[in-house]
Amino acid sequence: MYINIKRNIILNIKIRDKISYFLISLALTGLCTTYIIAQPVGTVQSFGEGITAKKFYSSTVDEDNTVWFLTESGIISFGGTKWILHNKNRKVASTDLRGAVYDFSSYGPELWIATPTGATVASLPVDARSGATTYYIDNSKIISENVLAVAVGGKELRWFGTDKGIYAFKGRKWLTNSYARKYPEGAFQDYPITSMATSPDGDSLYVGTLEGGVLRVFRNDVDAV
């Protein structure tokens, strides 16, 4: 793990040097002026029907090309012409939402959401009648309800990144963790998870961390991580 961290630091320095050289070159040639002026100013945007949002934390797109956003106002969707605030379901949190990913499982279209109180899965369209379940310490194998990121792989394989480790849920079965020696619990507190993405088949998970590089975990043949 320490070797990976060093390699990532060196890579980051090289990338920063290239970006700095590129920006200096633009400034010297006068090409940077238009870009700077074109930067948007942060204002509260009105979406109609009393919806206002300024902070967008995450987004995902479903099979109907509807975009789902997590904001400080809660879950907002945009289907191309209309913005909708989804705040009628009491089982779905509307504050401190961190990450969302769309999935189509045997239960139908779903939205998986990372929250400080667990990982919530809600059936679309996330209205008052939609089914919703939150996985936390008492009803799952995660040892921390502070979920920082979620990711979905193939064959109904879901990944949850917390401040104490990574957990996987396939179908209705929680996978056994076997990475403790390589990535102990303290590592996730020293280098918090910032993002997660799966391979095309979903069996491998790539985890972005804060100053800790990129980690990789995977599901093995005996359904362990």
State the main characteristics.
2 domains; alpha+beta; 225 residues; single chain; globular; 39% strand; 3 helices; Methylamine Dehydrogenase, Chain H; disordered N terminus
Number of distinct beta strands = 17
Tally of individual helices? 3
Could you give the order of strands across the largest sheet? Answer: 3-4-5-6
What spatial form do the alpha-carbon principal axes imply? globular
- Listing every helix as H and every strand as E from the N terminus to the C terminus, the arrangement reads HHEEEEEEEEEEEEEEHEEE
User: What is the highest CATH level, the class of the largest domain?
Assistant: Mainly Beta
Radius of gyration: 20 Å
CATH topology call of the largest domain: Methylamine Dehydrogenase, Chain H
Fraction of residues in helix:
10-25%
Low-confidence stretches: 1-41
Q: In the CATH classification, which architecture of the largest domain applies? A: 7 Propeller
Main beta-sheet strand count, sense and barrel state: 4 strands, antiparallel
Q: What count of structural domains?
A: 2
Please state the average pLDDT score. 80
User: What is the beta-strand fraction?
Assistant: 35-45%
> Helix/strand/pairing class, anyone?
alpha+beta
Give the name of the CATH superfamily of the largest domain. Answer: YVTN repeat-like/Quinoprotein amine dehydrogenase
Distance, first to last CA: 17 Å
